[in-house]
Amino acid sequence: MARWVVSRRWWPTTVRARATVGASVVVAAALTAASFALIGLLENNLLRNAENDARRQAESVAALAATGKLGRVRPLAPGVEFLQVVAADGTVLFSSPRPLAAPGPFRAVPDPVAPAPDVVTPAPQRPGLRLHTWKDRPFGGEQRVRVAQVVVDTPDGIVTVYAGASLRAADAADDTTTAALAIGMPLLLATVALVTWRVTGRALRPVEQIRAEVAGISDRDLHRRVPVPPTRDEVARLAQTMNATLDRLEASGIRQRRFIADASHELRSPITVLRTQLEVAMAIRDPDLWPELIGGALEDVERLQQLAADLLLLARIDAAQPVPTVPLDLTELVRDVVAARAGDRVPVGTALTAGVRVTGNELWLTRIVTNLLDNAQRFADGRVDVVLRSAPDPDGAPGAVLEVVDDGPGIPPAERERVFERFTRLDDARSREQGGAGLGLAIARDLAAHHGGSVTAEPHPRGARLVVRLPSEPSASASASASASASVSVSATSTGRRGDRGGGSGTDADPR
Q1: For residue 502, what are the contacts with CB-CB under 8 A and spacing of at least 6?
Q2: Closest alpha carbon to 349 in 358, 360, 338
Q3: Are strands 348-353 and 384-390 parallel, antiparallel or unpaired?
Q4: Distance between CA atoms of 221 and 229, rounded to whole angstroms?
Q5: Domains in the chain, start-ordered, CATH in brackets?
Q6: Phi and psi torsions of 53, nearest 5°
Q7: pTM for the model
Q8: pLDDT band for position 133 (50/70/90)?
Q9: Calpha distance 392→449 (Å, rounded)
Q10: What gap in Å lies between CA 241 and CA 329, rounded to an integer?
């Protein structure tokens, strides 16, 4: 473990340093491999050229010797350093001038790194061509010589022809190339490291600016935004995503502060009225007036209780707390909610497709239906209709559609989105008189969104038409589409103020 910590201590910690080290290591490995390959190719090419020169010279002289015309040997070809013809008994029959060479037959000493030559004195008696590389000791130097050895049968017996081509050019080219690479590789590697360091630093500079800007943003200045570089690369998209996230955070903060202010305002009014009624009850000693005062106080307490329950539910929805969900029959749920509202002010007509099943929380789905019916009852003139059917969503997935329609004044087109905002009332005086706080449709939409659905206000010839769309089970959708539609009409006359119904909290909140 200690060894790992020590090794990690020497490893670069920044992206810039790691990119520079990584690029340098990769380039160094590539340059090393390329250098060895270059030197090897150059060595082989020059060695092959020298070998061809020596072989051609030896073969031409051997051809002359085989016909007994050894005396017609021409001057050495370019690249060939020496030529020698040796008889089987070691007698030198022909020898080219060799600088710094002592007279006598050629005695080549093989290079220690090269395989031992097959030719010894006396010369071998097997005709053929052999190639060897020796250190040219007879010349008094250490240069390498590529020697072609040809054994040929002549009228005077077997002779051996030696032709040697110097490898000075190959050695000089190797030395020059090696020196150039030894100097150029570090310079090139340093250039790559410097360019990588500068380019990486320039590419990461906007990231550091984004980090510094985000680090300076607190909960009180969410209006600030990170700079977006003019490039269209990943860093620019990162800045745009960060700004979009800040937009959502700012909108959430504004919504939260507005929600707190609206909730405080809504709570202050019933508390003030309740306090006034209690003070009046304390000041008036007439027992005959106490029931009326206490009844009004109880109504305000009920309103506070319902408002507190709605606020707690909204807080739970905003916190995205998980709730248990199970497959359930939405048709039966809607039918039970409507049947439980036998005392509503206007009759409720239903057209429910049998067997529509969804996966969700029964209490929350009941609350959606209850809030929509509360809203319709508040503004309907003489009838409310509830329609449930199976219908695919825009993407083709199976879904359930619930419509609640009333014949009231309707919702103006410009207000069809605003009615789903919290504490929104289009008819503020009437809503307050009937106990609404402007949360009913907002809660219904939030609960539907929690189930992956939506609630919208859509056009209708008369009155309001609120549509709930929920994803349904594919098998249930198929069976529902094959089932017949069942219609049940339930009508009743309201005998007083509504209480809690349908398993919900019984809120009277309505945004209109």
Answers
A1: 336, 337, 340, 341, 366, 367, 369, 370
A2: 338
A3: parallel
A4: 22
A5: 12-215 (no CATH), 219-322 (1.10.287.130), 324-490 (3.30.565.10)
A6: -60, -50
A7: 0.52
A8: low
A9: 17
A10: 41
